Amino acid sequence: MTTLANYPLHQTVQTRWHDNDIYGHVNNVVYYSYFDSVVNRYLIEEGGLDIHNGEVVGFVVESQCKYLKPLAYPEPVTAGLRVGKLGNSSVRYELGLFNAAGELCAEGYFIHVFVNKASNTPTPIPEGIRSKLTLLVV
Amino acid sequence: MTTLANYPLHQTVQTRWHDNDIYGHVNNVVYYSYFDSVVNRYLIEEGGLDIHNGEVVGFVVESQCKYLKPLAYPEPVTAGLRVGKLGNSSVRYELGLFNAAGELCAEGYFIHVFVNKASNTPTPIPEGIRSKLTLLVV
Amino acid sequence: MTTLANYPLHQTVQTRWHDNDIYGHVNNVVYYSYFDSVVNRYLIEEGGLDIHNGEVVGFVVESQCKYLKPLAYPEPVTAGLRVGKLGNSSVRYELGLFNAAGELCAEGYFIHVFVNKASNTPTPIPEGIRSKLTLLVV
Amino acid sequence: MTTLANYPLHQTVQTRWHDNDIYGHVNNVVYYSYFDSVVNRYLIEEGGLDIHNGEVVGFVVESQCKYLKPLAYPEPVTAGLRVGKLGNSSVRYELGLFNAAGELCAEGYFIHVFVNKASNTPTPIPEGIRSKLTLLVV
Predict the structure, then answer these.
(1) Is D17 on the interface with C (CB under 8 A)?
(2) Per-residue pLDDT tens for D55-88?
(3) Chain A partners of C27 at a C-beta cutoff of 8 Å?
(4) Which of C78, C95, D45, D46 is buried most, with the most CB atoms less than 10 Å from its CB?
(5) D18: closest CA of chain B, how far (Å)
């Protein structure tokens, strides 16, 4: 069984009123915004990614999510993050979302390719980011 | 000068990656989702509002926001909430959003009219909610 | 009574599944994203605003909406746009949202201040944009 | 090469200002909201799904997207939809998103399990919906 212990990094995700859709649960689309926010926060705060003026950006080339149990605002969510594969210019992030009872409610992944903005071509992951991603490889 | 001290209730708002728009700041629309989430969290957790099966719902009839300084993900935001006017079936919430330096970045309000779902007509604010809103009247 | 005829420009707005919130109507926040999209589309397609590389950006300093009748996905919405005030570096857009029956469901406004990105100070509205906004002044 | 001709149903998707993120392209999360809206529009308008009072709801249990070329507001997008697998109570929707030049920019899928709201258990796909989904099976 997958638990938070399967993920080296944990972050709390605050839910919002309009995360819920007409069926009363967090809309399936919104899970990906949790993924996006958890990962970029780590890249920015730990890895030094400069999203405003940096020369390198991470583009998402693939994402997936499996939904196991519903979540709903206003309950808090805990996200677990690990790195499934760390390549030269790409990385696969794997995430789990857990409810307050510690149950796995969704799991997914997305793949970033790091790209040089000026040339619009793949570029090696910057060292500051790579060193922090290495810590999350499982 | 307006500070957090002008608001009896404070809540931390977590920003998200896609709160930022192409200009690199929190999009003007997103501020209203902060307002919505702060108020409903209070109504649900303190006032006992049941958004799934309750007979009474709060409909927004008017909202406004003035934007003073930009906010940007991933910085955290602190919201202040007070009640500007508490009527029989309607309430005016007034909110301020503050950055980490304690500066007021936006202020706004919205008005809820409480409505009976079955009859679709205004109804007195339920007592459990009213008593909690009274605490925020300034 | 306000009708579409009160607005010189009309645009169709396509609603989305998750525009609806748990109460089954378009969430109050989403109306502002309609406003934003209608106006910027006009500025880009008619006025030549370059949101990717332009030196001038429009920052929203104030917005408001009054909600008269609910809207709900999947119904289409028609937006009406007029310019309430055209200043040297700022403009007040006034919008109405109409349902398929032609009824006014919401009306609001927002104010753009045009700013030079490099200096971060207000700048006169570019001529290409101003000439197109002039057409919408009522 | 995948073209729109690979999908029996086509729908235009209107992009919005804040679909673009800080990097100037439609955010990866937003693609899923296009998927959601295209499919539910078909279920509601063609299949008679009642999202407000119906006894049956479609829950998303898995979704995926591959991003091939960026999209950006205000360009229009054309979505193609087909049914990859039609089970007793579940269906796999496959979607492609095309730009104005007819190029495939993203492709993905999601799986709906139809559930009886009262019992919260899987239920056969209602006949009105099934007959319309059958038309999209490839």
Answers:
(1) yes
(2) 999 999 999 999 999 999 999 999 999 999 999 9
(3) 17-18
(4) C95
(5) 6
Question: In chain A, how many domains are there?
Answer: 1
Q: Which residues of chain C have pLDDT under 50?
A: none
Per-residue pLDDT, C1: 84
What parts of chain B have a pLDDT lower than 70?
Answer: none
Q: What confidence category does residue A1 fall into, taking pLDDT thresholds of 50, 70 and 90?
A: confident
Q: Which residues of A touch C19 (CB under 8 A)?
A: none
Which residue, among B97, B109, B113, B2, has the nearest Cα to B64 in the 3D structure? B109
CA distance A112 to chain B (A): 15
- Sorting pLDDT into bands at 50, 70 and 90, what band is D1? confident
Say how far apart CA D37 and CA D75 lie, in whole Å: 17
* Identity of the residue numbered C111: I
3-class DSSP string for chain A: CCCHHHCCEEEEECCCHHHECCCCCECCCHHHHHHHHHHHHHHHHCCCCCCCCCCEEEEEEEEEEEECCCCCCCCCEEEEEEEEEECCCEEEEEEEEECCCCCEEEEEEEEEEEEECCCCEECCCCHHHHHHHHCCEC
Report the CATH number at residue B108.
3.10.129.10
Give the Å distances, CA to CA, from A118 to A124, B118, C118: 14, 58, 19
Which of B22, C70, B65 is CA-nearest to residue D18?
B22
* Owner of token pair 């919405």: C77
Q: Give the span between the Cα atoms of C77 and D28, in whole angstroms.
A: 25
Domain limits at A66? Answer: 4-134
Q: Which two tokens stand for residue C46?
A: 């008619």
User: Which of B22, B23, B65 is opposite residue C63, by nearest beta carbon?
Assistant: B65
DSSP annotation of B127 reads H
CA dihedral sign of residues D20, D25, D27, D32? positive
